[in-house]
Amino acid sequence: MPLYKIITVNEKTSIAIWKVAETLAELTEGVQLTGHCEERFKGMKSQLHQRAFMSIRHLLAQQGYVDHDMYYDDFGKPHLKDGNFISITHSYEFTAIIISKTTPVGIDIEKQREKILKIASKFTPIREYRTLANDDAVMRKLTIVWGAKESLYKIYGVKGLSFLQHINVADFSFEDGHTTATINYHGKESHYKVVFTEFEGFTCVYALKE
Q: Taking the model in full, what pTM does it have?
């Protein structure tokens, strides 16, 4: 099975990344879904999405969980019944989960695509990044910013939170591999550590509440 990478964030937090190469039949074998997840699975029109969904259940197993150990709230945010924090992501052939025993966490994987240059103004002041040498560098940086904001959105779990208005990601260099971010929503401010890595044309970003 193509477990792609394990990242040990700290002694209480770890990430597991999967590269989906199996058939749907191979991924489905041995997996028992809750009724809720069975309905979600059946409603997926894309087999790529179905395969990603099932691969996440294998990532859960790698961390010692089964589907019945997890539930979703009304916002669609996943939770573990043992009280540990979890976040889930998928993009094309990559899926990942992050689990922490102590800290709210969020994770996002994005494929690096030029399309992000066209939508950047909807989620961040793009002028901040125009000092970079070329469009490829801008694309990579914007993908990190988007992934950071997506991760923070998953942690916060509140409808109405705006990527552009409420979430700020501090500037960073690619060499840093990390940055900080702030959510300011209805006068309440919270702070986060953000870490990023790139592989095979994809960007993985994860966030931890400070």
A: 0.95
